Amino acid sequence: MALLEIRKVTRRFGEYVAVRDVSISVESGEFFTLLGPSGCGKTTLLRMIAGFDQPDGGQILLDGQDLAELPAERRPIHTVFQSYALFPHLTVWDNVAFPLKMADIPPAQRKAQVAAMLDAVHLSDRAGHFPHELSGGQQQRVALARALVDQPRLLLLDEPLGALDRQLREEMQLELIKLQRAVGITFIFVTHDQSEALALSHRIAVMKDGDIEQLDEPSKIYGLPRTRFVADFIGNCNLLEATVTACRPDGLQLQVPALGAVEAPSNTAAQPSQHGVLALRPEQVHITPRPPAECTLNCFAGKVLDFLYVGDVTTYKVALDNGQAIQALLPNTAPGRAKFFELGDRVWISWAPEAGHYVPD
Q1: DSSP β-ladder status, 77-81 and 154-158
Q2: Residue 132 burial (CB < 10 Å; 0-12/13-18/19+)?
Q3: How far is 164 from 178, CA to CA, in rounded Å?
Q4: Which CATH code fits 236-360?
């Protein structure tokens, strides 16, 4: 039996449906992420799990128990918010000890649990400090320690890294992964950041307009999107309008406007004459100054229209001779500022027949 079961949950605000008939199962010890743009329903769903809001329909079960009649303060669930919500007048030690004090845990046991948790988040040397004396990352770790010290069945994290700068955010992502593994508590994480979700999660539920678009492992969300929205929302992607002209066991043949015949991997959802898109990631696209050897499939000439240098990689936007624009990514492995092509350079774009993923409409 799953630790958490969400069964056909719906939440309305007047005529607006924030969450529509959503069903999800979350396993014990899982790092599960709700991912989507603002207004997709992910925070509303999290609030209903926490008990801060109630569904208009459906059930939320924890360990098989319906949570409908259980108020937020009695649920074995804690929430960490972006704002941290630390008590400014209490030290780090007293902030972390607060839930145990409220639960009347004996002082000796309380001391042992707080010490162990501060050690787990590497803040033992900050026990006597106040929140304003800590960095943003340290405050985040105090909030996590306080939420985990009484070992809840479930920890909810609502955009907890949103206020941190990029470098600190990446450091905290690694800390979160290590902490979750160490304590073994189920995490449900809410974010709109695709790279964050891909890096942290065992599974991801991608939400749009109150619905689940796709629920899968990160590698399948990224590499095998089931809808056009998921393909476009997760990472950077070329979306080529396409019609299926042939379905073979070893692959598909697609007709792409302006490009003509294109080969793609097989897809059991594809049918002849069906319209959809070929989702092609920039890192799957080769860009060369001359036609590649044996250039017979998925190979087109064009010129560099623009490029974006971001340090480790450069993404090139190429306008093909037939009018189609395609992005290709090159790693910057040479020392210094690597620039393989200039604006206006003639180039060739190609990709392997097994690259990309066809997504039916």
Answers
A1: parallel
A2: exposed
A3: 19
A4: 2.40.50.100
What are the start and end residues of each CATH 2.40.50.100 domain in the chain? Answer: 236-360
- Give the separation between CA 290 and CA 292, rounded to whole angstroms: 6
According to CATH, the topology of domain 4-228 is: Rossmann fold (3.40.50)
Work out the burial of residue 335: count CB atoms within 10 Å of its CB; fewer than 13 is exposed, 13-18 middle, 19 or more buried.
exposed
CA 345 to chain centre: 36
Residues 166-193: tens digit of each pLDDT: 888 888 888 889 889 988 999 999 999 9
Positions of CATH 3.40.50.300 in the chain: 4-228
pTM: 0.91
Which of 220, 302, 301, 297 lies closest to 253 in space, CA to CA?
A: 297
Distance CA 257, CA 112 (A): 67
Burial 69-100 (b: 16+ CB within 10 A, else e): eeeeeebebbbbebebebeeebbbbbbbbbbb
297: enclosing H helix or E strand? none
pLDDT tens-digit series, residues 240-275: 999 999 999 899 999 999 899 999 999 988 999 999
